[in-house]
Write a structure and sequence with these properties.
Oligomer: homotetramer
Order of helices and strands of chain A: HHHHHH
Radius of gyration of chain A: 18 Å
Number of strands of chain A: 0
Largest interface: A-B, 72 and 72 residues
Structural class of chain A: mainly alpha
Distance between the termini of chain A: 39 Å
Chain lengths: 119, 119, 119, 119
Amino acid sequence: MPKRTDSLEMLRVKLAQFAADRDWNQFHNPKNLAMALAGEAGELVEHFQWLTFEEAANLPRGVREEVELECADVLLFLIRLADKLGVDLAAAAEKKIALNAAKYPVAKSKGRATKYNKL
Amino acid sequence: MPKRTDSLEMLRVKLAQFAADRDWNQFHNPKNLAMALAGEAGELVEHFQWLTFEEAANLPRGVREEVELECADVLLFLIRLADKLGVDLAAAAEKKIALNAAKYPVAKSKGRATKYNKL
Amino acid sequence: MPKRTDSLEMLRVKLAQFAADRDWNQFHNPKNLAMALAGEAGELVEHFQWLTFEEAANLPRGVREEVELECADVLLFLIRLADKLGVDLAAAAEKKIALNAAKYPVAKSKGRATKYNKL
Amino acid sequence: MPKRTDSLEMLRVKLAQFAADRDWNQFHNPKNLAMALAGEAGELVEHFQWLTFEEAANLPRGVREEVELECADVLLFLIRLADKLGVDLAAAAEKKIALNAAKYPVAKSKGRATKYNKL
């Protein structure tokens, strides 16, 4: 059984409460949340922009901790966005994995980064 | 009890298998995954760019389904990125929520979108 | 006649010299520059994420100055990226405007934010 | 002497006319334009996400043409955004180059991608 904090649903509930406590639902329109998510994704990508592949795979401890929190920021805004849209994030993930499995059959995509529509 | 697919850890395992089956670990360097995440966040934000707040909160069914899959794309790349970095995403989320609770005490941040360093 | 600083070509030359002086061409691979551009676009969007339309159109002086510099950051990385790719940015802009004029004829797109493929 | 299309100011005028002709100023709020810019930056970064540095520096002709148009998209939305904000993009670029020259003196930053606040 997954531990409590591992559940997207439990994080969703916790974040909804966090926003309600601060009267932040007025700001949490999906448009704004999509922007916040894009901003956090931008901060995440900045950490890697000048790194070699080897450096990116071996972040110094301090950078790694910053990146960890950027990852969390992306997740938290994504969960809030999905919540406000009424999207079940876990179900959407399962659906997308199934679609990807169909678009990228092992035989055709093995060892290739080619986009499905060019395979 | 959360259903199986609700667990970040189970999604992580599933995606690691998906990549291994296709010999995609060679492409899944954290630098590349951070880029892929930023790209998906860009696609997500595009869906909302010309919408009013009301329209964003009431997406037509077809758009909503596209947005649902974009949300999934962000989540899937985020899980892969965290996995390759050795970051426990659920733990990072809990840590960040605790930090946010300290940075945004209810009394100071109620009804305000002001960034913590300007509160 | 445009003033000196108004020219994309003159900015390109100035930035190429700036990078050469610092021996930064080793970092200015197109992949890295595209990431840097995405990062700056993320910072730009963050300034607007919680604002109403009216607030966004009437930024306080201090925010406006920050946004001005974020706009500059996007432009500078874009010019560097185009330079390293051998892309003539001004010519590309003209080409894209012509394409947009064909995709969005006035009669069909007047007053509508609909994407060309759904017009 | 720069050719006509090389001027940011001339592009600004052309795009303002393009938007006016289509009655698009109603959509071109700075918030929306910042989102559109972030979306285009996301599309740009996607082209590079699975590439090695060598591949990124040697795009196949077809990809290069797509990337060229993505670069144009970023520029066009940036010019529109600056216009709606009343920002003089060329002046902002000059200002930022001067700031960067102060933050990254040649002696300290030569051959290093370190951010100025960690130099």
